[in-house]
Amino acid sequence: MAVDTALLAEAALRGPAPRRAWWRSPSLLAGGMVLLVLVAVGVLAPLLLSGPAGTLTGDANLSPGGSHWLGTDPFGRDVLARALVATRLTLVMATAATALSFVAGVALGAGALLAPPRIRQVVLRVVDAAVAFPSLVLALVIAAVLGAGAGSAVVAIGLAGVPGFARLTYNLAQGVATRDFVTTAHLLGVPGPRVLTRHVLPNVSGPLLVLLTSSFALSLLEISGLSFVGLGVQSPQYDWGRLLNEALPSIYTSPWLVLAPSLMLVLAGVGAMLAGDGVARIVDPRQAHGTPAGRSGRTTRRKAEPEAAPADDAVLVVDGLVVEAAGRRLVDDVSFRVRPGEVVGLVGESGSGKSTIAMAVARLLADGLVAEARTLRLRDLDLLGRPPARRLATELGIVFQDPSATFNPALRLGSQLTEVLRVHLGRSRAAARDAVVAALTEIKVTEPARRLRQHPHELSGGMLQRASIAAALTTGPALLIADEPTTALDVTVQAEVLRQLRRLQREHGTAVLFISHDIGVVGALCDTVLVLRDGRVVDRTTGAALRAGEANHPWTAALLAARPGARRNEETA
Amino acid sequence: MNPATPDTASTREVVEVPTPSLVHVESLVVVLGHGRSARTVLDHVDLAVGRGGAHGLVGESGSGKSTLAKTLVGVHRPAAGQIRLGGIPLPRRGLRGRRPAGLPRVQLVPQDPWSSLDPRRTVAETIAEAVDPVRARVAPARERIRTLLEQVRLDADAADRYPHQFSGGQRQRIAIARALAADPDLLIADEITSALDLTTQAEILDLLADLRTRLGLTMLFISHDLAVVREVSDEVTVLLHGRVVEQGPTEDVFARPGAEYTRRLLAADPGAPGFSLDESG
């Protein structure tokens, strides 16, 4: 029904899937260079070094040094030259195997998505079984069946990699296939295979690319492994694995023989892994931004020395609050006070900064957001310093927008609702439970004792939201922050939750900071109202004035006029 | 879908109301899930929308309003009852594949503007796909894309940009333009303003009203928000737990609500006159 505007704002902030230029990713740069060098070696070495690599000479079993940097083998061939020449065959085989895995795996995964349900189930079961099976063992079996040789090694390793690609493609594609744009394409009459190639596969390409690079590194090792055990490349051809295989019998007498092919293998593996890591970072926009500027605790700073705090009884004092992210100002010099028992509303559209203000007060700003203020004080608690966690947890209650996301779905409500009482106030389990049951009864949650034994999904949204209001009030907080608490609820449920909130607030005398995009709700509930636009307070008014339809500022008037009911009255008037 | 008459949407005249209903739903039952988890989501729902009419479908979460929309476009299959579009029964396989001759075209604008557009395709590519679903080529559709963007009040340079470069309201306009590109007889708007700010919602509602009069569209407008439905529809159906609790001309239903539930819905609107948070008992 409603979307979390704060999340959307954050998404918008993160930017439109920021694509960091590939050359600015150090790991991709390093990995790419290594692979490029290896490709160059693969192209050039067989042309330049086939003499020393293949000619039998009398200089057998020379140790490293002199004209043979890494020594010679039992037939007098240069070890380094052989390792370099073997690069071509190794890379070609690894590439071919990876390509086979990728093409066949993506085709299988995508085909499963298009197939009728029964065939899909069979394919997925087989793929699952194959994924669970170690791919090298699978490759060994395939190679044993096909017989030894370079070609069968490629086929074996390639086939062994198919299930991984198939499963990933299917899982990712299934996620995309339920999105509205895919459904819409179907309704427009776009043929199924075209929906797949046009909408689904392009949107899953990122993670597949990452798997592709790591799969290349794995194929490289596995193919070398097959050659090493004698099932891969056969004499007189040789790859790195074959070189290791030939070096094995004399590993104690001529240990230098394993050095060159091992080094090449490690180099190629590290290069591919680095490249994969770089690709992953570029594909995932959240990683692309790197580490955020500051973490919680350092995201809230004092702007200047506070003016001597005026002796007043305000529960919350916000003075000169500024919140910035990546140079953009989300909240611009906002100041207000909340007095005991007062309900202060922050109203504005998405991006107006209303939730950001609340989260700055609660010290819950998202990573990358930095808040500065002259004063940020909850009673005598300086929120710009390092307030004790226990006092913050008991003096500040928070109710979030989406009741189904507030609670951990795996835990019973009892342990979640009593947590603050047990952890921060040191109440016993039984005492905490009694307190919460009393609070739930007070907010008219039916069968409160039974609710505590239930899991969140067993309650309706309205009941859950009442429970979170009740839990937030059990510690007797000085301030309750309610961030769009009724936006996700149906209108009849919303009215009831607001009613209960209003009643409890009056009975307990709790001060409330109420955030909403709905100027009607804010007008009905709040004493004082701040109208926000683009991070600034443009109007300070009262709930009574809003209820009467009075607006001092043009933007408040525009918000009032945009309400569907108000528009209709205007038309009929 | 109808390549022979690509421009009819902009020139079509309003067909005289109330010829046989464009949408005729009779005793519709829809059951979702299988076996033990099967739930009857729509329970003997009747609904008729005349050509050129605007019908509002109101209900809270779980009322079955979105399921009704999806059943009309063939995503869900009826367990019982009948759906006729322009007098022709909706095929059992829905609207995918070959459609019976003369079956009116239906387009659905989904709720969430963040998931309704392919993030990797430009606005022009998105709309071109609706013009020609198979080839989806932009070049031959350029002129039509320009007209459509104009109709939804977006700048022509929007065509070559990607969805992430637009706000929620603008995305919703793009989704509407795509729906119009398929030259629909019936446009179903499923909560298309509920993720938007109030001022943006007002703009979209104005746009829909304007498109309806200009193009002679028949509209089924689905929302949880009574005030929104009241603004855009001539007739309204109130759903509760899959059943119709009230149906009739919008102004009658709002002025003299017959069902207890409709009265409760009306009274719960914080903007309604007389709304109070003091407990009445």
Q: What report would you give on this structure?
A:
The complex is a heterodimer of chains A (573) and B (281). With 573 residues, chain A is of the alpha/beta class. Chain A is 56% helix and 12% strand. In chain A, a hairpin with a 2-residue loop joins strand 11 and strand 12. In chain A, helix 2 crosses helix 3 and helix 2 runs antiparallel to helix 10. Chain A is elongated and about 100 Å long. By secondary structure, chain B is an alpha/beta fold. Helix content of chain B is 30%, strand content 22%. Chain B is built from nine helices and ten strands. In chain B, the strands form two sheets. Chain B has a six-stranded mixed sheet, with helices on both faces. Chain B has a four-stranded antiparallel sheet with strand order 2-1-4-5, covered by helices on one side. In chain B, helix 4 packs across helix 5. The longest helix of chain B has 18 residues. Chain B starts with 7 loop residues before the first helix and ends in a 14-residue tail after the last helix. The relative contact order of chain B is 0.17. The N terminus of chain B is likely disordered. Chains A and B meet through helix 7, helix 8, helix 20, helix 21 and helix 23 of A and strand 6, helix 3, helix 5, helix 6 and helix 7 of B.
Main features:
heterodimer, A: 573 residues, alpha/beta, six-stranded mixed beta sheet, 24 helices, 12 strands, disordered N terminus, B: 281 residues, four-stranded antiparallel beta sheet, 30% helix, globular
Chain-wise SSE layout:
The complex is a heterodimer of chains A (573) and B (281).
Chain A: H1 5-14, H2 26-54, H3 79-114, H4 117-132, H5 135-146, H6 150-177, H7 180-188, H8 192-228, H9 240-247, H10 259-283, H11 285-288, E1 300-302, E2 316-325, E3 328-338, E4 343-347, H12 354-361, E5 369-373, E6 375-378, E7 381-382, H13 389-395, E8 396-399, H14 403-406, H15 413-417, H16 419-423, H17 429-442, H18 448-452, H19 461-473, E9 479-483, H20 491-508, E10 511-516, H21 519-525, E11 528-533, E12 536-542, H22 543-547, H23 554-562, H24 564-572
Parallel strand pairs in A: 1-5, 4-10, 4-11, 8-9, 9-10
Antiparallel strand pairs in A: 2-3, 2-5, 2-6, 6-7, 11-12
Helix pairs in contact in A: 2-3, 2-10, 3-4, 3-6, 3-8, 4-6, 5-6, 6-8, 7-8, 8-9, 8-10, 9-10, 17-19, 19-20
Chain B: H1 8-11, E1 23-32, E2 39-49, E3 54-58, H2 65-72, E4 80-85, E5 88-89, E6 106-109, H3 123-131, H4 142-151, H5 168-181, E7 186-190, H6 198-215, E8 218-223, H7 226-232, E9 235-240, E10 243-249, H8 250-255, H9 260-267
Parallel strand pairs in B: 3-8, 3-9, 6-7, 7-8
Antiparallel strand pairs in B: 1-2, 1-4, 4-5, 9-10
Helix pairs in contact in B: 3-5, 4-5
